[in-house]
Amino acid sequence: MGRKLKSSKWPGVLFREHASRKHGLQFDKYFIIYYRWNSKNYQEALGWASQGWTGLKAAAVLGELKENQRRGEGPKSLAEKRAKDNEQTAIKKNQNITFGRFFMETYLPAQDCKSAQALRREKSFYNVWLDQSIAAHTFDEISELMIEKLKRDILKVGRSARTVEYCLAVTRQTWNLALRRGVTDKPWPGRYVKRPKADNRRTAFFSQEQAQTLLEQLAKKSTQWRDITLLSLHTGLRAGEIFRLQWEDIDLLNKTLHIRDPKSRRDRFVYMTDEVFEMLTLRRSGKEAGFVFTDRHGRAIREVSQTIQRAIDALGFNEGINDRRHKLTFHSCRHTFASWAASAGVDMFTLQRMLGHETAAMTQRYSHLAPSGIRSAMRKLDGTLSRKVKAGVVPIRRA
């Protein structure tokens, strides 16, 4: 390549002259920086004078690295600095990509692990809310004020706080993927936007008569969905837990169901009622493996059929009810099981285990349906207070 390595007038900057090629009146020079960091010697090449490098420019790079080493921030070696520069170049190159383009071309195709229902919901949020607000803007243009306006627009038309939460979650997830892909280096601008308080907990449940009527109605439409509804009403299982049930999880001898990988991330065992035992016995008919309930192609069911909601609406159970939290749906079967159990005197700790709730707070919504314990406590307290009065405690008189 050239001649021997020489020292320059700048400490830590070395150079080697080309054997024949000249740059201007002098031989072309190849600049190298030399430094020591973390008890190691580093010698890293920069480039030729013909490529724009000078001793002063090399000294500036070396000074930057040494300052970063001293402060403990930023690139501390030439390799780190080049990687950072390449990252910044890639980000600048992608600065013209809009949020909408990235969402459609990159984010959605990367969500293959999500269910079809979840993807439809995210597309719906994009079409209804994001397409008209931030989709046409680049990531660099989107501000906290725009996210705040998006939140207000959703609430202004009467949508729930939960809708705001879901919509912002889709925005945040898209943004985080853009960060990982190097499309932007700007943190999500909605991180400081205050979330409205959401309480979308459904509390409606079927009466005994309504549940029986619904089962009879479903039996006329679909035996399978009648059986699924019966199973949820009698065990409190979530739709996903029912859809994932396989025959190897069914123990008819001991009348138990093994629920694997549930939402709470803990396996649990659920006991059958006589009606569930009879239903599963009839459905089994020699089957030893596979899903208990399948779609028309023999695969696991992915979502609840509209057959159930149509049956509920046809029976008029939701007439005159405008608040969606109080409307009866398939998920109300789980609430019904919990409500019936609480009303029958099942304590909250046991009910939490039966439902597979991760925290006791999730089960407390049913505590008002089990007043017997409170009444019993009040009777004991009343008896204690009465004894104190008889023992000489003077009651307070009204003025």
Report on the structure:
- The chain is of the alpha+beta class and 399 residues long.
- It has 3 domains: 6-93, no CATH class; 99-192, DNA polymerase, domain 1, CATH 1.10.150; 208-368, Orthogonal Bundle (hpI Integrase, Chain A), CATH 1.10.443.
- Helix content is 46%, strand content 11%.
- The strands form 2 sheets. It has a 4-stranded antiparallel sheet, with helices on one face.
- The longest helix has 20 residues, at 161-180.
- The radius of gyration is 34 Å and the shape is elongated.
Properties at a glance:
alpha+beta, hpI Integrase, Chain A, 3 domains, three-stranded antiparallel beta sheet, 15 helices, 7 strands
Q: What is the strand tally?
A: 7
Structural class: alpha+beta
Indicate the percent of residues in helices: 40-55%
Average pLDDT level: 83
The strand line-up of the biggest sheet is 1-2-3-4
Oligomer: single chain
Query: Quick one: biggest sheet?
Result: 4 strands, antiparallel
Content of β-strand: 5-15%
- Architecture of the largest domain, CATH level 2? Orthogonal Bundle
CATH H level of the largest domain: which superfamily? Intergrase catalytic core
Uncertain regions spanning at least 5 consecutive residues? 388-396
List the helices and strands and how they pair.
Elements: E1 6-7, E2 13-23, E3 26-37, E4 40-48, H1 55-71, H2 78-93, H3 99-107, H4 116-130, H5 144-156, H6 161-180, H7 208-221, H8 223-235, H9 239-243, E5 250-251, E6 256-259, E7 268-271, H10 274-284, H11 306-314, H12 332-343, H13 348-355, H14 360-363, H15 372-390
Antiparallel strand pairs: 1-2, 2-3, 3-4, 5-6, 6-7
Helix pairs in contact: 3-6, 4-6, 5-6, 7-8, 7-11, 8-12
